[in-house]
Amino acid sequence: MSVPVQAPQETDGTESFWRSLRFFSMYRLAIAALFLVAALIFGDTISLGTQDPALFGRAAAIYLLFAVAFLVALLRRPRSFNLQLSIQVAVDVAALTLMMLASGGQKSGIAALLLVVVAAAGLVGQGRMTLFYAALASVAMLLEESWRALTREADPADFVRTGIICIAFFGTAIVARLLARRVVANERLARQRGRELDDQLRISERIIRDMEDGVLVVDGDGWVRLLNPRAGSLLNSQAAESAGLGALSPALADRYRAWSSQAVEVVEMLRPESGRLVRVRYLPSAEAAGHALIYLEDMERVQAQAQQLKLAALGRLTANMAHEIRNPLAAISHAAELLAEEETDPLHQRLARIVHDNTRRLNRLVTEVLELGRRDRAQPETLRWKIFLSGFLEELTLHDPSAGRRVVVGDEDVELHFDRGHLYRVLWNLLGNALRHASDANGAVRLEARAATTSPSVELHIIDDGHGVDEAQRSQVFEPFFTTHGAGTGLGLYIARELCEASGARLELLDEGPGAHFRITAKGGACH
């Protein structure tokens, strides 16, 4: 396995500082090599080293060695920026001053290179210690001119020219400092804007990728420059970016060519090769012959959301109506009971019983509709299966005495996360159906609980030995108002599934005969 190479540690300079210092070192290497080649090849034919050729040659050779050493140090161990820069500038000043002494002083023109060193040091160091470098170069110039005046004949006007050059050093240093501060401010601002732009681009890419609508950016020639995963899903295509629009959808490509001639915002319905009804919105670019933006909206999803809103409103209306129906229903039932007690005519008593039985059925239907409206009020809690089931079976036995011998419970105990009232209602529906369709034998209905093996959840199994559910009816058992029992409402299993989903559980009918086998998968785990 390869290990990525880490970038060198930087202590007192940013990467831009080190990059500028490397360029400065390359410049030094070129100047030193130029001076050494000039001393070795041209000799006395040029004005360099006219007063002391040996000193000039030695200074140029040593200067070249230092230039190579500085560049190698920068490439291998870029540390202590200010220290390295100061050493390099000091070597520059010393070497150029010695070569200027060997060439006849500031008349040789080498002093201009000292001016370049001061300016470059001020810019490379971003304005730090710039005046120190100017003072260092000025002291070196004055010492060189003083030495010349003591050892050789010198014109007093040379001191004036040297002073002017020293003034130029300080002027250059001040200008370099001001420019460096401006460069630092602009660079800092550019970095900040770059980070902000990078963050904005990442956020925009994330938003486009996770949008529920498809997004396509198409150029004037019909080539797709950008698309999000939703667009590929709506068009049922695996084509990537930089593909032709016809590769994604020939129908959309034809409509795009027809639209591009007018280049105005257009909204239309389209059914591409995927078979979905898609709302397509074409947006032209602000620039001539620029990219166009195409939005794809899944109308089936929009219609499904509208249907959900209608069903929710209808559910609230149904719950309100059921609540209002309950009061007159109770009055009718009570009147039928009184009528049956007072009437001696068998026909009238029979009619009163029919009214009473049907009002009871309607009341049960209203109760179940109201129970369905409470599914969103789930308050899941951690329940111990054995403890909960013992109380439940006691109440079930009071309602159906045969449940005590016909219902058997497995040995395993679990903990599940479920709303207590909802679990009671779900088990009441499932066990009521199981007892109604199972045989009269002992243990005809089995209740088993076990921890799931693949996820942190538990499974509750309700199994009976009845005839089971016909294959043709399996897909309908959870539909509302579907029932095979004459006195049933057809809402029991539908409500049971809705209550399970309200607690984050899942109710399924398994294809395991001969009897019916229902499984509830809920959050939880085995008891420790």
Which terms would index this structure?
disordered N terminus; Beta-Lactamase; 12 strands; 4 domains; 13% strand; seven-stranded mixed β-sheet; alpha+beta; 528 residues
List the helices and strands and how they pair.
Blueprint: H1 15-41, H2 53-76, H3 81-102, H4 111-124, H5 130-151, H6 156-210, E1 214-218, E2 224-227, H7 229-235, H8 245-248, H9 250-260, E3 266-270, E4 278-283, E5 292-298, H10 299-342, H11 346-372, E6 381-384, H12 385-399, H13 403-406, E7 407-409, E8 414-418, H14 420-437, E9 445-451, E10 457-464, H15 492-502, E11 506-509, E12 517-526
Report on this model:
The protein is of the alpha+beta class and 528 residues long. The protein has 4 domains: 175 residues, no CATH class; 90 residues, Beta-Lactamase, CATH 3.30.450.20; 72 residues, Helix Hairpins (Orthogonal Bundle); 150 residues, Heat Shock Protein 90. Helix content is 58%, strand content 13%. The protein has 15 helices and 12 strands. Strands 6, 7, 8, 9, 10, 11 and 12 form a 7-stranded mixed sheet that branches. Strands 2-1-5-4-3 form a 5-stranded antiparallel sheet. A hairpin with a 7-residue loop joins strand 3 and strand 4. Helix 14 runs antiparallel to helix 15. The radius of gyration is 46 Å and the shape is elongated.
